Amino acid sequence: MTIQADQETVTVEAFINGQHVKSLSQLAKENPANPTEIVGYFPVTTKEQAVTAIEAASGAFKTWKQTSIDERITRMRKAIEKIKAAENDIVHLLSREHGKPLYDAHGEIFVSLMWMEFACNEAASVLADEVHEHDQGKTIVSYDPIGVVAAISPWNYPIALSTIKIAPALLAGNTIVLKPSPYAPLAAAKVAEIIASEFPAGVINVVYGDADVGVELTSHPLVTKIAFTGGTATAKHIIKAASETIKDMTLELGGNDAAIFLESFDVHDERAMRRIVISNFLTTGQICMIAKRVYVHRSIYNEFVEKYIEAANRWIRIGDPFDPNTTVGPVNNSKQREYVNGLVEDAQKRGAKVIPLGQILDRNRFEQGYYLQPTLVLDCDAHDPIVVEEQFGPTVPVLPFDDEEQVIKLHNESIYGLTSSVWGKEEDAITLARQLEAGTTMINTAAVQGLDVQFPFGGFKQSGIGREYGAEGILTYTEKHVINVPKMLDLPYIPE
What we know:
The protein is an alpha/beta fold and 496 residues long. The chain folds into two domains: 10-253 and 463-482, Aldehyde Dehydrogenase, Chain A, domain 1 (3-Layer(aba) Sandwich), CATH 3.40.605.10; 258-450, Aldehyde Dehydrogenase, Chain A, domain 2, CATH 3.40.309.10. 39% of the residues lie in helices and 23% in strands. Strands 16-18-19-14-13-21-22 form a seven-stranded mixed beta sheet, with helices on both faces. It has a six-stranded mixed beta sheet with strand order 10-9-8-11-12-24, sandwiched between helices. β9 (175-179), α6 and β10 (204-206) form a beta-alpha-beta unit. α7 crosses α8 (232-242). 51% of the residues are buried.
């Protein structure tokens, strides 16, 4: 069944200092479910326009940083209400340009608003001065805004991973220049402009473009902080570009998150099996914190695989994103589809068994779009590319392990450490979780199902620098400013 959405073509432009700025050229964004359909157009921002946006943000910062926290929160709450009012239109646009099923697009808005509302609720207390009275006098610790933030968001969760930066940056008194991904620029731009409508000109700016614009945002001396979500390889270039001016950075990067199933896990728990399937294939497997490799204790391995296939075939329905029966849509772009397909083909050549999962609802649409049928990969080696590389698509390897020491080693030898999950009796799972190198470990759930925006999120090793969400996700957009008022002004060990 194919459900046709509104076919209106959307055009977005750079938004600089409160004004739309035309560009000399534009790029088309296709619908991944039907690449012949153009969803909209976005501009090719020039390096000079990027500089203008940075300068506008720098100019606006001088006034914006002086506003009260109450004013900042009030403006952000008004923006939240506008996003809620426009949610259906945003969801339809996001689904068309990204390929997310409608329920998944609504889920992204849900997570975005949940974080924005948490940030509004907590900002006043988190950013309040700390006043310490002590024997030596008084010390005030204030949390001052950093300045101009360059925010670069990815295509997999373009709205959530833009608002995760916009909300705390502005609440802390900073200004921002946002660069959405060219693979999903439209809905993120619309949301950014809705927020911008409640703030003074120059506080929020939106630019587009490729490497030259990215280099300008990450190297310009007026930019004082970089907030980036994306691949580890790109982050290495960002770090180099930022090194000349020693910028503050929050980097949420790649992950090859493991799900570990202990001997105590009940393979007959249908709800748990459904949770792990969703943890592998939500958003077609294109989430940084998705469970990308599965380790199962050998004593339950065969039965686990059997029950997993049953659960996957019940939940996975591949089809048009606007079909309410669809649970898995297309891969976002042809490049990513080719990469994931290459990993699966490589695994087969190495002797792995590849099992297709789920039901294809519309064979014609499937063959027309950037679709891949989800697959389970068995009998592969623990060091095959499909296991050690981040697939970021609808495939997952499942491997047996014999003891906890072995699986801890397999988990921790990865260059990544974003999230992980351990499944089984709670006490046993927590004991094992403490030995894993990961920013977040979830017990008996994984991925978005275990996300709590009240607590910090980020990774070990090459999965990133710093944390987002929670109070830490607000404070990361501030600098601590210590003001000392000592009682003893003349130190006894310094001579007259």
